[in-house]
Amino acid sequence: MSNKTTCDVAIIGAGIIGLATAYYLSKKGMKLAIIEKNYIGSGSTLRCIGGIRQQFSTPTSIRVMKESVSLFAQMKEEFGFSVDFHQGGYLLLAHDEQFVEVFKSNIQIQRQEGVNVSLLTPEETKDLVPELNIAGLLAAAYCPDDGQAYPFLVLKGYKQKLDAKRQAFYLHNPVTKIEKPKNFILTLQDGCQLEAPKVVLSAGPWTRELAQQMGLDLPLYPERHEALVTERIPKIIDPMLVDYRQDGCYFHQYLSGHIVGCYTPYPNFPGICHEASLEFLREMGKRMIRLVPALEKATILRQWAGCYTMTPDGSPIVDESPISNLYIASGMSGHGFMFGPGIGRHLAHFIAEEKWDVDFREFAIDRAFKGKESLK
Ligand SMILES: Cc1cc2nc3c(=O)[nH]c(=O)nc-3n(C[C@H](O)[C@H](O)[C@H](O)COP(=O)(O)OP(=O)(O)OC[C@H]3O[C@@H](n4cnc5c(N)ncnc54)[C@H](O)[C@@H]3O)c2cc1C
After folding, report:
1. Do 211 and 300 sit in the same domain of this protein?
2. Which residue, by CA, sits nearest to atom 33 of ligand 1?
3. Which atom of ligand 1 is nearest to the CA of 339?
4. Tell me, what's the pLDDT at 178?
5. What is the pLDDT of residue 118?
6. Which has fewest Cβ within 10 Å: 80, 224, 325, 346?
7. Atom of ligand 1 nearest to the CA of 13
8. How far is residue 213's CA from residue 253's CA, in Å, rounded to a whole number?
């Protein structure tokens, strides 16, 4: 016999997007069910490297990120412990003229939105990061207010706050069926059924297959991205370094002293795959040392793989779907951790008040998906 429980909003997926949305819905007094097929953060969020930047190319992304930065900054007080939020900046490196032009035009938009960003010469860049190899560098875009936080601590903070409000978590228990006779009825793997008038689908790379159950075909394409972490070493870099060459990479140093980094594979590696590769390990080491030769002495501790969930234009889908009261929040690309707090707050407002408090048309489900976020 099924055991049906009711709530105001059911949230499928306990990554950063699901938990941040839950946190802000909970603040509004909503009764929630948060369903996670594995453990909290087990999808992409705990595989990410915690970078937070405001240097985007479209106004909505920049605004969301400005807001996210201020929300990350408040977490220590809100959660009662530090989430290792640190504003060491992001330094985007251009080794060809095309990227210099991209940076210049983005800086104009970012400044219009009030972001503190500037274009540095190679010498100014070297002053900022003395260990950086500037051979071939033409210019760098720098925002000192960008930075990092530790994903494990951010999720822990949201979880504790939701527990304090006695919100219901269903962990290690995937949603296997979604139906909508009137309200939504979700069936979980253990047979438990949940009834909710509103559902948030924030299942990261699995969002597309879940939405298909409801007859929706969303342009969401998971791809594998890999990362590694070194042993702790004395402070060597403060900003996140992002090398935009095709064989570039990006990495930063946590407050703990560990260096964490990734590169964007070319060609991309489509599908949901959590298997790490030897190729990445070999390549990433070389690329990091090319950029910061002193890293030659650092020992790699471990590597892992996770997913970016891509959309055709590189911006997320955050919107009510054509199925009334079914909200989609996915397609976060390599930015979901940093977008999380800002998107969670606005999506919670939209769900509770049934109207946006900001212009989110850039993230609309029915947009044309033309153009491309130039700072992937
Ligand atoms: C190597 C790497 C580095 C990255 N670095 C950064 C970075 O520096 N900064 C940044 O902002 N972003 C970064 N990202 C991207 C970031 O991790 C993602 O954009 C973000 O975590 C997406 O969050 P999410 O909540 O949408 O998805 P997820 O974290 O994937 O959460 C979705 C959850 O849904 C659950 N789920 C799926 N199906 C079901 C089901 N049927 N029932 C119940 N639950 C289900 C999954 O188990 C999962 O936990 C990185 C990603 C990778 C892989």
Report:
1. no
2. 13
3. 11
4. 97
5. 98
6. 80
7. 34
8. 42
Question: How far does residue 130's CA lie from ligand 1's centre (Å)?
Answer: 34
Task: Indicate whether this model's pTM tops 0.85.
Answer: yes
pLDDT along the chain (376 residues), means of 10: 82 98 98 98 98 96 98 98 98 97 97 98 98 98 98 98 98 97 97 98 98 96 98 97 97 98 96 97 97 97 98 97 98 98 98 96 95 70
Helices vs strands, H then E, count in the chain = 8, 20
Q: Is 210 in the pocket of ligand 1 (CB under 6 A)?
A: yes
Residue 94 structural domain: 87-146+221-310
**Contact 60 CB / ligand 1 (< 6 Å):** no
Centre of ligand 1 to C-alpha 16, Å, is 7
Q: How many CA atoms lie within 13 A of 370 on its CB side?
A: 1
Q: What distance in Å separates the CA atoms of residue 209 and residue 339, rounded to the nearest whole number? A: 23
Please tell me if the CB atom of residue 17 comes closer than 6 angstroms to any atom of ligand 1: yes
**Rg of the chain taking only CA atoms, in angstroms:** 21
* 182-225 tens-digit pLDDT: 999 999 999 999 999 999 999 999 999 999 999 999 999 999 99
CATH number at residue 214: 3.50.50.60
> What local confidence, expressed as pLDDT, does residue 176 receive?
98
Q: Residue 95: CB within 6 Å of ligand 1?
A: no
Ligand 1 centre distance from Cα of residue 157 (Å): 17
Render the burial of 53-82: b for 16+ CB within 10 Å, e for the rest: bbbbbbebbbbbbbbbbebbeebeeebeee
Q: How many domains does the chain have?
A: 2
Whichever domain contains 261, its CATH number is 3.30.9.10
Crossing angle between the packed helical segments 59-79 and 97-112, to the nearest 10 degrees? 70
- What distance in angstroms lies between residue 62's CA and the mean position of ligand 1's atoms? 20
Q: Is 239 in the pocket of ligand 1 (CB under 6 A)?
A: no
| Minimum-distance ligand 1 atom for the alpha carbon of 38 | 47
